[in-house]
Protein backbone atom coordinates (compact mmCIF):
# COMPACT_ATOMS: atom_id res chain seq x y z
CA UNK A 1 0.00 0.00 0.00
CA UNK A 2 1.47 3.31 -1.12
CA UNK A 3 0.54 6.27 1.04
CA UNK A 4 0.47 9.96 0.17
CA UNK A 5 3.65 10.32 2.23
CA UNK A 6 5.35 7.70 0.03
CA UNK A 7 4.25 9.67 -3.02
CA UNK A 8 5.71 12.85 -1.51
CA UNK A 9 9.02 11.10 -0.89
CA UNK A 10 9.20 9.70 -4.43
CA UNK A 11 8.25 13.09 -5.91
CA UNK A 12 11.10 14.71 -4.00
CA UNK A 13 13.56 12.07 -5.28
CA UNK A 14 12.30 12.71 -8.84
CA UNK A 15 12.48 16.48 -8.30
CA UNK A 16 8.77 16.97 -8.90
CA UNK A 17 6.48 19.32 -7.02
CA UNK A 18 2.96 17.84 -7.06
CA UNK A 19 -0.29 19.72 -6.70
CA UNK A 20 -2.80 18.32 -4.20
CA UNK A 21 -4.77 16.91 -7.15
CA UNK A 22 -1.72 15.18 -8.61
CA UNK A 23 -0.79 13.87 -5.18
CA UNK A 24 -4.14 12.13 -4.87
CA UNK A 25 -4.19 10.96 -8.48
CA UNK A 26 -0.71 9.42 -8.37
CA UNK A 27 -1.33 7.79 -4.98
CA UNK A 28 -4.37 6.05 -6.42
CA UNK A 29 -2.78 5.18 -9.76
CA UNK A 30 0.53 3.93 -8.33
CA UNK A 31 -1.46 1.65 -6.04
CA UNK A 32 -3.52 0.37 -9.00
CA UNK A 33 -0.54 -0.15 -11.27
CA UNK A 34 1.86 -1.64 -8.71
CA UNK A 35 -0.98 -3.77 -7.33
CA UNK A 36 -1.38 -5.26 -10.79
CA UNK A 37 2.38 -5.80 -11.02
CA UNK A 38 2.43 -7.86 -7.84
CA UNK A 39 1.64 -10.82 -10.09
CA UNK A 40 5.42 -11.01 -10.59
CA UNK A 41 5.77 -12.25 -7.02
CA UNK A 42 4.20 -15.54 -8.07
CA UNK A 43 7.29 -16.37 -10.10
CA UNK A 44 10.23 -18.01 -8.40
CA UNK A 45 13.31 -16.19 -9.70
CA UNK A 46 15.76 -17.31 -7.04
CA UNK A 47 18.24 -18.79 -9.51
CA UNK A 48 17.60 -16.47 -12.45
CA UNK A 49 20.23 -13.96 -13.55
CA UNK A 50 18.90 -10.44 -14.24
CA UNK A 51 18.98 -9.08 -17.82
CA UNK A 52 19.73 -5.36 -17.91
CA UNK A 53 20.69 -5.46 -21.54
CA UNK A 54 20.21 -7.95 -24.38
CA UNK A 55 23.45 -7.55 -26.33
CA UNK A 56 26.57 -9.42 -25.23
CA UNK A 57 28.44 -6.12 -24.79
CA UNK A 58 31.09 -5.34 -22.23
CA UNK A 59 32.81 -1.98 -21.92
CA UNK A 60 33.33 -0.36 -25.31
CA UNK A 61 36.76 1.23 -25.69
CA UNK A 62 38.25 3.41 -28.39
CA UNK A 63 41.56 5.10 -29.04
CA UNK A 64 41.97 8.37 -27.15
CA UNK A 65 42.04 10.78 -30.05
CA UNK A 66 40.69 14.29 -30.40
CA UNK A 67 37.72 14.38 -32.73
CA UNK A 68 35.41 17.11 -33.94
CA UNK A 69 33.40 18.82 -31.25
CA UNK A 70 30.63 21.36 -31.07
CA UNK A 71 31.75 24.96 -30.73
CA UNK A 72 31.19 26.73 -27.41
CA UNK A 73 28.53 28.91 -29.02
CA UNK A 74 26.67 25.86 -30.27
CA UNK A 75 26.85 24.23 -26.86
CA UNK A 76 25.46 27.33 -25.18
CA UNK A 77 22.91 28.08 -27.90
CA UNK A 78 20.00 26.39 -26.08
CA UNK A 79 20.89 27.55 -22.59
CA UNK A 80 18.06 29.37 -20.79
CA UNK A 81 20.55 31.79 -19.25
CA UNK A 82 24.10 31.78 -20.60
CA UNK A 83 26.60 34.23 -19.18
CA UNK A 84 30.29 34.67 -19.96
CA UNK A 85 30.49 31.24 -21.60
CA UNK A 86 28.85 29.57 -18.62
CA UNK A 87 25.42 28.17 -17.72
CA UNK A 88 24.06 30.53 -15.10
CA UNK A 89 21.91 29.01 -12.32
CA UNK A 90 20.16 30.41 -9.22
CA UNK A 91 22.08 30.39 -5.95
CA UNK A 92 23.27 26.97 -4.82
CA UNK A 93 24.09 27.55 -1.15
CA UNK B 1 -3.81 12.45 -63.21
CA UNK B 2 -1.02 10.54 -61.52
CA UNK B 3 -1.04 11.39 -57.82
CA UNK B 4 2.63 11.21 -56.87
CA UNK B 5 1.97 11.16 -53.12
CA UNK B 6 0.19 7.83 -53.52
CA UNK B 7 3.25 6.02 -54.92
CA UNK B 8 6.00 4.10 -53.15
CA UNK B 9 9.66 5.15 -52.99
CA UNK B 10 10.70 2.46 -55.47
CA UNK B 11 8.01 3.49 -57.97
CA UNK B 12 9.01 7.14 -57.59
CA UNK B 13 12.69 6.28 -57.94
CA UNK B 14 11.96 4.69 -61.32
CA UNK B 15 10.10 7.82 -62.46
CA UNK B 16 12.96 10.04 -61.28
CA UNK B 17 15.60 7.98 -63.05
CA UNK B 18 13.55 7.96 -66.27
CA UNK B 19 13.21 11.74 -65.86
CA UNK B 20 9.42 11.48 -66.05
CA UNK B 21 9.20 13.57 -62.90
CA UNK B 22 11.62 15.83 -61.05
CA UNK B 23 12.42 15.56 -57.36
CA UNK B 24 11.22 19.13 -56.88
CA UNK B 25 7.87 18.32 -58.50
CA UNK B 26 7.54 15.25 -56.29
CA UNK B 27 8.30 17.21 -53.13
CA UNK B 28 5.88 19.98 -54.08
CA UNK B 29 3.19 17.34 -54.64
CA UNK B 30 3.74 15.99 -51.13
CA UNK B 31 3.67 19.47 -49.58
CA UNK B 32 0.42 20.18 -51.47
CA UNK B 33 -0.99 16.99 -50.03
CA UNK B 34 0.06 18.08 -46.52
CA UNK B 35 -1.67 21.39 -47.09
CA UNK B 36 -4.81 19.61 -48.25
CA UNK B 37 -5.19 17.02 -45.47
CA UNK B 38 -3.06 17.85 -42.45
CA UNK B 39 -5.80 19.98 -40.91
CA UNK B 40 -7.69 16.72 -40.47
CA UNK B 41 -4.76 14.41 -39.66
CA UNK B 42 -2.40 16.72 -37.75
CA UNK B 43 0.63 14.51 -38.31
CA UNK B 44 3.26 17.26 -38.32
CA UNK B 45 4.51 19.59 -35.61
CA UNK B 46 7.15 21.30 -37.81
CA UNK B 47 7.39 21.57 -41.60
CA UNK B 48 10.77 21.94 -43.34
CA UNK B 49 9.68 22.87 -46.85
CA UNK B 50 12.56 25.16 -47.84
CA UNK B 51 15.12 22.64 -46.72
CA UNK B 52 13.33 19.81 -48.57
CA UNK B 53 13.07 21.76 -51.81
CA UNK B 54 16.74 22.67 -51.64
CA UNK B 55 17.61 18.99 -51.15
CA UNK B 56 15.28 18.06 -54.03
CA UNK B 57 16.88 20.56 -56.41
CA UNK B 58 20.29 19.16 -55.59
CA UNK B 59 19.02 15.66 -56.49
CA UNK B 60 17.59 17.06 -59.74
CA UNK B 61 21.02 18.47 -60.62
CA UNK B 62 22.55 15.02 -60.05
CA UNK B 63 19.96 13.47 -62.35
CA UNK B 64 20.58 16.15 -65.01
CA UNK B 65 24.31 15.41 -64.79
CA UNK B 66 23.54 11.72 -65.37
CA UNK B 67 24.93 10.81 -61.95
CA UNK B 68 23.68 7.61 -60.36
CA UNK B 69 21.26 8.42 -57.54
CA UNK B 70 20.49 6.32 -54.48
CA UNK B 71 17.08 4.64 -54.13
CA UNK B 72 15.97 7.27 -51.60
CA UNK B 73 17.31 10.33 -53.45
CA UNK B 74 14.63 12.99 -53.66
CA UNK B 75 12.13 10.85 -51.73
CA UNK B 76 10.13 12.85 -49.12
CA UNK B 77 10.63 11.34 -45.66
CA UNK B 78 9.13 12.44 -42.32
CA UNK B 79 11.06 12.27 -39.05
CA UNK B 80 9.55 11.65 -35.62
CA UNK B 81 10.17 14.72 -33.52
CA UNK B 82 12.31 12.89 -30.96
CA UNK B 83 15.27 12.60 -33.36
CA UNK B 84 17.67 15.51 -33.43
CA UNK B 85 17.83 17.52 -36.64
CA UNK B 86 20.63 20.10 -36.90
CA UNK B 87 19.12 23.59 -36.93
CA UNK B 88 15.52 22.30 -36.94
CA UNK B 89 13.46 22.41 -33.75
CA UNK B 90 13.24 19.01 -32.00
CA UNK B 91 10.66 18.99 -29.22
CA UNK B 92 9.84 15.38 -28.23
CA UNK B 93 6.37 17.00 -28.19
CA UNK B 94 7.06 18.25 -24.68
CA UNK B 95 6.78 21.73 -23.26
CA UNK B 96 10.24 20.96 -21.85
CA UNK B 97 11.84 21.07 -25.32
CA UNK B 98 9.31 23.26 -27.14
CA UNK B 99 12.09 25.64 -28.27
CA UNK B 100 15.01 23.23 -28.46
CA UNK B 101 17.08 23.55 -31.66
CA UNK B 102 19.73 20.83 -31.71
CA UNK B 103 23.23 21.77 -32.86
CA UNK B 104 23.69 18.32 -34.43
CA UNK B 105 21.74 15.61 -36.24
CA UNK B 106 20.96 12.07 -35.17
CA UNK B 107 22.97 9.43 -37.05
CA UNK B 108 19.83 8.16 -38.82
CA UNK B 109 19.04 11.69 -40.02
CA UNK B 110 22.59 12.10 -41.31
CA UNK B 111 22.35 8.79 -43.15
CA UNK B 112 19.06 9.74 -44.79
CA UNK B 113 20.60 13.09 -45.76
CA UNK B 114 23.57 11.26 -47.22
CA UNK B 115 21.22 9.09 -49.28
CA UNK B 116 19.58 12.21 -50.70
CA UNK B 117 16.21 11.73 -48.97
CA UNK B 118 14.39 15.02 -48.39
CA UNK B 119 12.92 15.90 -45.00
CA UNK B 120 9.24 16.92 -45.14
CA UNK B 121 9.05 17.78 -41.46
CA UNK B 122 8.94 16.54 -37.90
CA UNK B 123 6.00 14.42 -36.75
CA UNK B 124 3.86 14.35 -33.65
CA UNK B 125 4.35 11.84 -30.83
CA UNK B 126 3.31 11.13 -27.28
CA UNK B 127 5.47 13.34 -25.08
CA UNK B 128 8.95 11.73 -24.87
CA UNK B 129 7.43 8.72 -26.72
CA UNK B 130 5.44 7.71 -23.64
CA UNK B 131 2.06 6.56 -24.82
CA UNK B 132 0.12 4.34 -27.20
CA UNK B 133 -2.17 6.87 -28.89
CA UNK B 134 -0.28 10.16 -29.55
CA UNK B 135 -2.82 11.80 -27.23
CA UNK B 136 -0.02 12.61 -24.77
CA UNK B 137 1.60 15.13 -27.13
CA UNK B 138 1.91 18.49 -25.38
CA UNK B 139 0.77 20.18 -28.62
CA UNK B 140 -2.21 18.39 -30.17
CA UNK B 141 -3.69 14.99 -30.96
CA UNK B 142 -2.99 13.24 -34.28
CA UNK B 143 -6.00 11.69 -36.00
CA UNK B 144 -6.17 8.32 -37.71
CA UNK B 145 -6.51 8.82 -41.50
CA UNK B 146 -8.93 5.85 -41.69
CA UNK B 147 -11.32 7.43 -39.18
CA UNK B 148 -10.42 10.84 -37.84
CA UNK B 149 -12.45 10.23 -34.66
CA UNK B 150 -9.88 7.58 -33.76
CA UNK B 151 -6.26 7.57 -32.56
CA UNK B 152 -3.41 6.66 -34.94
CA UNK B 153 -1.73 4.60 -32.20
CA UNK B 154 1.47 5.68 -30.57
CA UNK B 155 3.86 6.82 -29.74
CA UNK B 156 5.01 7.34 -33.37
CA UNK B 157 1.45 8.28 -34.41
CA UNK B 158 2.47 11.27 -36.53
CA UNK B 159 4.97 9.25 -38.58
CA UNK B 160 2.49 6.42 -39.24
CA UNK B 161 -0.42 8.75 -40.06
CA UNK B 162 1.79 10.84 -42.39
CA UNK B 163 2.64 7.79 -44.53
CA UNK B 164 -0.95 6.45 -44.47
CA UNK B 165 -2.32 9.85 -45.55
CA UNK B 166 0.24 10.39 -48.33
CA UNK B 167 1.86 13.26 -46.43
CA UNK B 168 5.24 11.50 -46.71
CA UNK B 169 6.44 8.54 -48.74
CA UNK B 170 8.33 6.95 -45.84
CA UNK B 171 9.09 8.01 -42.28
CA UNK B 172 11.10 7.16 -39.20
CA UNK B 173 9.70 6.21 -35.81
CA UNK B 174 11.10 4.84 -32.60
CA UNK B 175 9.84 1.79 -30.72
CA UNK B 176 10.37 1.15 -27.00
CA UNK B 177 7.38 -1.13 -26.38
CA UNK B 178 5.49 -1.07 -29.68
CA UNK B 179 5.66 2.58 -30.72
CA UNK B 180 6.35 1.72 -34.37
CA UNK B 181 4.31 -1.47 -34.73
CA UNK B 182 1.14 -0.29 -32.97
CA UNK B 183 0.65 2.86 -35.09
CA UNK B 184 1.65 0.92 -38.23
CA UNK B 185 -1.11 -1.56 -37.40
CA UNK B 186 -3.71 1.12 -36.61
CA UNK B 187 -2.87 3.16 -39.75
CA UNK B 188 -2.46 0.24 -42.19
CA UNK B 189 1.19 0.76 -43.14
CA UNK B 190 4.37 -1.32 -42.85
CA UNK B 191 6.43 -0.68 -39.70
CA UNK B 192 9.61 -2.40 -38.53
CA UNK B 193 11.36 -2.33 -35.17
CA UNK B 194 14.84 -3.69 -35.93
CA UNK B 195 16.93 -5.83 -33.59
CA UNK B 196 18.24 -3.86 -30.61
CA UNK B 197 21.64 -2.49 -31.65
CA UNK B 198 21.02 -2.73 -35.42
CA UNK B 199 20.31 0.99 -35.81
CA UNK B 200 22.20 3.76 -34.03
CA UNK B 201 20.35 5.61 -31.27
CA UNK B 202 22.76 8.56 -31.36
CA UNK B 203 20.65 11.72 -31.42
CA UNK B 204 17.44 9.92 -30.43
CA UNK B 205 15.99 11.58 -27.33
CA UNK B 206 16.28 8.73 -24.84
CA UNK B 207 13.23 7.15 -23.19
CA UNK B 208 14.35 3.67 -22.06
CA UNK B 209 17.84 3.02 -23.35
CA UNK B 210 17.87 -0.78 -23.18
CA UNK B 211 14.61 -0.96 -25.19
CA UNK B 212 14.57 2.02 -27.60
CA UNK B 213 15.16 1.32 -31.28
CA UNK B 214 14.61 3.42 -34.42
CA UNK B 215 12.91 1.96 -37.48
CA UNK B 216 11.03 2.79 -40.69
CA UNK B 217 7.41 3.21 -41.77
CA UNK B 218 6.56 2.66 -45.42
CA UNK B 219 3.72 1.79 -47.76
CA UNK B 220 5.21 -1.53 -48.75
CA UNK B 221 7.85 -4.04 -47.77
CA UNK B 222 10.29 -3.11 -50.54
CA UNK B 223 10.51 0.46 -49.21
CA UNK B 224 10.96 -0.91 -45.71
CA UNK B 225 14.03 -2.87 -46.86
CA UNK B 226 15.38 0.19 -48.69
CA UNK B 227 15.03 2.39 -45.61
CA UNK B 228 16.65 -0.29 -43.44
CA UNK B 229 19.61 -0.46 -45.84
CA UNK B 230 20.25 3.23 -45.25
CA UNK B 231 19.75 3.51 -41.49
CA UNK B 232 21.31 0.31 -40.12
CA UNK B 233 24.91 -0.44 -39.25
CA UNK B 234 27.46 0.22 -36.54
CA UNK B 235 27.97 3.74 -35.21
CA UNK B 236 30.90 4.63 -32.95
CA UNK B 237 28.75 7.35 -31.36
CA UNK B 238 26.36 4.75 -29.88
CA UNK B 239 28.15 2.36 -27.54
CA UNK B 240 25.22 -0.10 -27.73
CA UNK B 241 25.31 -0.19 -31.51
CA UNK B 242 26.25 -3.68 -32.69
CA UNK B 243 29.15 -4.53 -34.97
CA UNK B 244 27.67 -6.86 -37.57
CA UNK B 245 27.73 -7.38 -41.31
CA UNK B 246 24.81 -5.43 -42.71
CA UNK B 247 23.32 -7.36 -45.62
CA UNK B 248 21.55 -5.76 -48.58
CA UNK B 249 18.05 -6.13 -47.15
CA UNK B 250 16.41 -5.90 -50.58
CA UNK B 251 18.08 -9.25 -51.30
CA UNK B 252 15.54 -10.91 -48.99
CA UNK B 253 12.53 -9.76 -51.02
CA UNK B 254 11.63 -13.18 -52.40
CA UNK B 255 8.11 -14.37 -53.06
CA UNK B 256 8.57 -17.69 -51.30
CA UNK B 257 7.86 -18.92 -47.79
CA UNK B 258 7.81 -22.61 -48.62
CA UNK B 259 9.48 -24.68 -45.92
CA UNK B 260 9.50 -21.93 -43.29
CA UNK B 261 8.15 -22.83 -39.85
CA UNK B 262 5.99 -20.26 -38.08
CA UNK B 263 4.87 -20.48 -34.46
CA UNK B 264 1.76 -18.67 -33.26
CA UNK B 265 2.06 -17.95 -29.52
CA UNK B 266 -1.31 -19.06 -28.09
CA UNK B 267 -1.05 -16.41 -25.35
CA UNK B 268 -1.28 -13.68 -28.03
CA UNK B 269 -4.53 -15.14 -29.35
CA UNK B 270 -6.12 -15.60 -25.90
CA UNK B 271 -9.47 -14.28 -24.70
CA UNK B 272 -8.45 -10.59 -24.56
CA UNK B 273 -8.31 -10.38 -28.34
CA UNK B 274 -11.22 -8.73 -30.11
CA UNK B 275 -13.11 -11.42 -32.12
CA UNK B 276 -13.08 -9.37 -35.34
CA UNK B 277 -9.30 -8.93 -35.06
CA UNK B 278 -8.89 -12.63 -34.37
CA UNK B 279 -10.86 -13.47 -37.51
CA UNK B 280 -8.60 -11.30 -39.70
CA UNK B 281 -5.44 -12.76 -38.10
CA UNK B 282 -6.66 -16.35 -38.55
CA UNK B 283 -7.34 -15.65 -42.18
CA UNK B 284 -3.82 -14.26 -42.62
CA UNK B 285 -2.37 -17.35 -40.94
CA UNK B 286 -4.33 -19.56 -43.32
CA UNK B 287 -2.96 -17.54 -46.25
CA UNK B 288 0.62 -18.05 -45.04
CA UNK B 289 -0.08 -21.76 -44.78
CA UNK B 290 -1.57 -21.83 -48.27
CA UNK B 291 1.63 -20.15 -49.51
CA UNK B 292 3.62 -23.13 -48.25
CA UNK B 293 4.68 -22.17 -44.74
CA UNK B 294 4.18 -24.54 -41.84
CA UNK B 295 2.04 -22.75 -39.21
CA UNK B 296 1.27 -24.12 -35.76
CA UNK B 297 0.36 -22.88 -32.30
CA UNK B 298 3.09 -22.68 -29.70
CA UNK B 299 3.60 -21.16 -26.28
CA UNK B 300 5.59 -18.32 -24.70
CA UNK B 301 4.74 -19.24 -21.12
CA UNK B 302 5.85 -16.00 -19.42
CA UNK B 303 3.79 -13.71 -21.64
CA UNK B 304 1.37 -12.81 -18.84
CA UNK B 305 4.27 -11.24 -16.91
CA UNK B 306 5.59 -9.13 -19.79
CA UNK B 307 3.42 -6.07 -19.24
CA UNK B 308 4.37 -5.72 -15.58
CA UNK B 309 8.03 -6.34 -16.37
CA UNK B 310 8.01 -3.73 -19.11
CA UNK B 311 6.17 -1.11 -17.08
CA UNK B 312 8.75 -1.43 -14.31
CA UNK B 313 11.88 -1.45 -16.48
CA UNK B 314 10.86 1.25 -18.98
CA UNK B 315 9.79 3.84 -16.36
CA UNK B 316 12.87 3.04 -14.25
CA UNK B 317 15.15 3.79 -17.19
CA UNK B 318 13.03 6.81 -18.12
CA UNK B 319 13.21 8.29 -14.64
CA UNK B 320 16.98 8.14 -14.91
CA UNK B 321 17.15 9.42 -18.52
CA UNK B 322 14.82 12.33 -17.82
CA UNK B 323 16.88 13.51 -14.85
CA UNK B 324 18.85 15.61 -17.36
CA UNK B 325 15.91 18.01 -17.82
CA UNK B 326 16.77 20.39 -15.03
CA UNK B 327 16.56 23.78 -16.75
CA UNK B 328 20.32 24.32 -16.72
CA UNK B 329 21.83 23.56 -20.14
CA UNK B 330 18.87 23.47 -22.52
CA UNK B 331 15.10 23.32 -22.54
CA UNK B 332 12.54 25.02 -20.39
CA UNK B 333 13.45 26.86 -17.17
CA UNK B 334 10.88 28.07 -14.66
CA UNK B 335 11.41 31.58 -13.37
CA UNK B 336 11.01 32.91 -9.84
CA UNK B 337 13.00 30.14 -8.18
CA UNK B 338 14.53 30.71 -4.74
CA UNK B 339 17.52 28.46 -5.25
CA UNK B 340 18.80 25.82 -7.63
CA UNK B 341 16.81 22.89 -6.17
CA UNK B 342 13.65 24.98 -6.27
CA UNK B 343 14.45 25.78 -9.91
CA UNK B 344 14.81 22.05 -10.74
CA UNK B 345 11.49 21.26 -9.03
CA UNK B 346 9.53 24.10 -10.63
CA UNK B 347 11.05 23.54 -14.07
CA UNK B 348 10.20 19.84 -14.12
CA UNK B 349 6.76 20.25 -12.58
CA UNK B 350 5.72 22.96 -15.03
CA UNK B 351 7.13 21.43 -18.20
CA UNK B 352 6.46 17.67 -17.93
CA UNK B 353 2.99 16.38 -18.82
CA UNK B 354 0.90 14.05 -16.74
CA UNK B 355 1.98 10.70 -18.27
CA UNK B 356 5.67 11.65 -18.11
CA UNK B 357 5.32 12.57 -14.43
CA UNK B 358 3.47 9.30 -13.78
CA UNK B 359 6.32 7.30 -15.31
CA UNK B 360 8.98 9.27 -13.46
CA UNK B 361 7.08 8.52 -10.24
CA UNK B 362 6.67 4.83 -11.10
CA UNK B 363 10.31 4.44 -12.14
CA UNK B 364 11.71 6.39 -9.22
CA UNK B 365 9.62 4.28 -6.85
CA UNK B 366 10.82 1.02 -8.45
CA UNK B 367 14.44 2.15 -8.08
CA UNK B 368 14.18 3.67 -4.61
CA UNK B 369 15.82 2.26 -1.49
CA UNK B 370 13.80 -0.60 -0.06
CA UNK B 371 11.89 -1.33 -3.28
CA UNK B 372 14.72 -1.90 -5.77
CA UNK B 373 14.93 -5.66 -5.16
CA UNK B 374 11.18 -6.22 -5.04
CA UNK B 375 10.40 -4.29 -8.22
CA UNK B 376 13.31 -3.35 -10.48
CA UNK B 377 15.61 -6.33 -9.87
CA UNK B 378 12.63 -8.70 -9.95
CA UNK B 379 11.62 -7.26 -13.33
CA UNK B 380 15.14 -7.74 -14.71
CA UNK B 381 15.03 -11.40 -13.68
CA UNK B 382 11.64 -11.94 -15.28
CA UNK B 383 13.05 -10.26 -18.38
CA UNK B 384 15.54 -13.14 -18.53
CA UNK B 385 12.69 -15.66 -18.41
CA UNK B 386 10.82 -13.84 -21.18
CA UNK B 387 13.94 -13.77 -23.34
CA UNK B 388 14.45 -17.51 -22.72
CA UNK B 389 10.90 -18.19 -23.93
CA UNK B 390 11.86 -16.65 -27.27
CA UNK B 391 15.23 -18.44 -27.41
CA UNK B 392 13.40 -21.73 -26.97
CA UNK B 393 10.74 -20.89 -29.56
CA UNK B 394 13.36 -19.92 -32.14
CA UNK B 395 15.05 -23.30 -31.79
CA UNK B 396 11.93 -24.67 -33.44
CA UNK B 397 10.48 -21.82 -35.51
CA UNK B 398 11.86 -19.40 -38.09
CA UNK B 399 9.37 -16.72 -37.05
CA UNK B 400 6.64 -16.10 -34.53
CA UNK B 401 3.43 -14.62 -35.88
CA UNK B 402 0.69 -12.83 -33.92
CA UNK B 403 -1.61 -9.82 -33.88
CA UNK B 404 0.10 -6.48 -33.19
CA UNK B 405 -2.71 -5.38 -30.90
CA UNK B 406 -5.83 -7.09 -29.51
CA UNK B 407 -7.99 -4.29 -30.99
CA UNK B 408 -8.14 -1.92 -33.93
CA UNK B 409 -7.71 1.86 -33.48
CA UNK B 410 -9.75 3.08 -30.52
CA UNK B 411 -11.63 6.35 -30.19
CA UNK B 412 -9.86 9.54 -29.17
CA UNK B 413 -10.38 9.99 -25.43
CA UNK B 414 -11.51 6.39 -24.87
CA UNK B 415 -8.56 5.33 -22.71
CA UNK B 416 -7.06 8.58 -21.44
CA UNK B 417 -8.53 8.29 -17.93
CA UNK B 418 -7.19 4.83 -17.22
CA UNK B 419 -3.42 4.39 -17.65
CA UNK B 420 -3.54 0.62 -17.08
CA UNK B 421 -6.13 0.20 -19.85
CA UNK B 422 -3.89 2.25 -22.16
CA UNK B 423 -0.82 0.16 -21.21
CA UNK B 424 -2.72 -2.99 -22.25
CA UNK B 425 -2.61 -1.78 -25.89
CA UNK B 426 1.07 -2.81 -25.80
CA UNK B 427 0.48 -6.34 -24.54
CA UNK B 428 1.49 -8.07 -27.82
CA UNK B 429 4.44 -5.80 -28.68
CA UNK B 430 6.44 -5.21 -25.49
CA UNK B 431 8.03 -8.67 -25.23
CA UNK B 432 10.08 -8.19 -28.40
CA UNK B 433 11.68 -5.08 -26.89
CA UNK B 434 12.43 -6.94 -23.66
CA UNK B 435 14.06 -9.73 -25.72
CA UNK B 436 15.73 -7.29 -28.16
CA UNK B 437 14.46 -9.18 -31.22
CA UNK B 438 13.09 -7.60 -34.42
CA UNK B 439 9.35 -7.13 -34.83
CA UNK B 440 7.31 -5.98 -37.79
CA UNK B 441 3.73 -4.97 -38.50
CA UNK B 442 2.29 -5.55 -41.96
CA UNK B 443 -1.25 -4.75 -43.15
CA UNK B 444 -3.24 -8.02 -43.18
CA UNK B 445 -6.84 -6.92 -43.60
CA UNK B 446 -9.62 -4.82 -42.16
CA UNK B 447 -12.06 -5.24 -39.29
CA UNK B 448 -15.14 -3.00 -39.46
CA UNK B 449 -13.32 -0.69 -41.88
CA UNK B 450 -10.20 -0.30 -39.74
CA UNK B 451 -6.76 -1.75 -40.58
CA UNK B 452 -5.38 -4.77 -38.74
CA UNK B 453 -1.65 -5.46 -38.49
CA UNK B 454 0.02 -8.86 -38.46
CA UNK B 455 3.11 -9.03 -36.26
CA UNK B 456 6.17 -10.98 -37.35
CA UNK B 457 8.89 -11.60 -34.75
CA UNK B 458 12.28 -13.10 -35.59
CA UNK B 459 15.68 -14.07 -34.25
CA UNK B 460 18.24 -11.41 -33.39
CA UNK B 461 19.53 -9.79 -36.61
CA UNK B 462 17.25 -11.96 -38.75
CA UNK B 463 15.32 -9.05 -40.29
CA UNK B 464 15.84 -10.98 -43.55
CA UNK B 465 13.26 -13.68 -42.72
CA UNK B 466 10.77 -11.01 -41.58
CA UNK B 467 11.18 -9.14 -44.86
CA UNK B 468 10.96 -12.29 -46.97
CA UNK B 469 7.75 -13.39 -45.24
CA UNK B 470 6.23 -9.91 -45.30
CA UNK B 471 7.09 -9.55 -48.98
CA UNK B 472 5.57 -12.92 -49.87
CA UNK B 473 2.37 -12.07 -47.98
CA UNK B 474 2.20 -8.69 -49.68
CA UNK B 475 2.74 -10.09 -53.19
CA UNK B 476 -0.20 -12.43 -52.68
CA UNK B 477 -2.64 -9.97 -51.04
CA UNK B 478 -3.67 -6.40 -51.71
CA UNK B 479 -4.35 -4.98 -48.22
CA UNK B 480 -1.37 -2.62 -48.53
CA UNK B 481 -2.91 -1.01 -51.61
CA UNK B 482 -6.03 0.22 -49.81
CA UNK B 483 -6.11 3.97 -49.21
CA UNK B 484 -7.96 5.97 -46.58
CA UNK B 485 -10.53 8.48 -47.82
CA UNK B 486 -9.71 11.92 -46.53
Structure description:
The complex is a heterodimer of chains A (93) and B (486). Chain A has 93 residues and is mainly alpha-helical. Chain A is built from three helices and two strands; from the N terminus they run αααββ. Chain A has helices at 4-13, 20-37, 72-76; strands at residues 82-83, 86-87. In chain A, a hairpin with a 2-residue loop joins β1 and β2. In chain A, α1 (4-13) crosses α2 (20-37). Chain A is flat, with a radius of gyration of 23 Å. The two termini of chain A are 37 Å apart. With 486 residues, chain B is α/β, with parallel strands linked by helices. Chain B has a domain at 4-250: Amidase signature (AS) enzymes. Chain B has 15 helices and eleven strands. Chain B has helices spanning 9-17, 23-41, 49-64, 107-114, 157-164, 181-187, 221-231, 275-290, 306-321, 340-351, 354-367, 372-396, 419-423, 430-435, 463-475; strands spanning 44-47, 76-80, 118-123, 170-175, 190-193, 213-218, 261-265, 294-298, 399-403, 439-447, 450-457. The mean pLDDT of chain B is 97. At the A-B interface, α1 and α2 of A face α9, α10, α11, α12 and α13 of B.
Fill in the keyword field for this structure.
heterodimer, A: 93 residues, mainly alpha, Histone, subunit A, two-stranded antiparallel ribbon, B: 486 residues, alpha/beta, Amidase signature (AS) enzymes, 11-stranded mixed β-sheet, 15 helices, 38% helix, 13% strand, globular
TL;DR of this structure?
Chain A is mainly alpha-helical and about 90 residues long. In chain A, about 35% of the residues lie in helices and about 5% in strands. Chains A and B meet through α1 and α2 of A and α9, α10, α11, α12 and α13 of B.
